[in-house]
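Hi Y.,

Following your request, here is the sequence exactly as I used it, all 255 residues.
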Amino acid sequence: MSEVLTNLLAKNGLLTAFAVIGLTMWVSYFLSARLTRGQLHGSALAIIIGLLLAYIGGVATGGKQGLIDLKPFSGIGLMGGAMMRDFAIVSTAYGATLSDMRRCGLSGLISLLVGVFMSFIVGAGVAYAFGYTDAVSMTTIGAGAVTYIVGPVTGAAIGASSEVIVLSIAAGLVKSVLVMVVTPFVSKYIGLDNPRTAMIFGGMMGTTSGVCGALAAVDPKLVPYGAMTSTFYTGLGCLLGPSLLFFATKALMAQ
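Below is the corresponding structure, written out as tokens. Let me know if you'd prefer a different format.
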């Protein structure tokens, strides 16, 4: 009976993945509402639960891909792949209106540049402090601090090792969770209550999942505006990481 069920779940892998993710999200939002009264957003809890499940899957199978190494959950690999991920990131920006986007103006552009460069500098500095002193490793981990998408994109482009790429993803995930958790507590102090500041916030923080989760906890109507600039932030990071930021780091470390 168990073998039949396992084969059935594996055969309908994508449907199984949607069911598992749906259940995880329901549990996350339930715990968020009951235990933290929404202060710790459900998305943050979902990421934590997802990492825990990936760890359990890796330990149980001895594999390297987490939960998807278990046959019934192999469809999660497709659902979590680049195609679905990028579609989800882009789709979150469709609720923004052009008139509100124009109001952001130059400050939105500046927030993007400041956000990317500051995150990169902090990430590369931490990498250097922990002994990763070569330009490739520093750039990859610094790019991971930009977002956990920019890190592996940059690392693959400049020839980073798999270990360093994993560290870059970890750096981005930590940033994402911190943005989700901390933002609801400080939103009123930074004026995060209108589309303009939401777009600037998205440009400064950049991590789309973190920004969307944080803004959903503050005011769901602000999510599309933060998602718009944070999506541009990801694209800008992917452009600058393997090029300008890498060459600048390489030149600095050669001195």
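The radius of gyration is 19 Å.

Thanks again,
Q.
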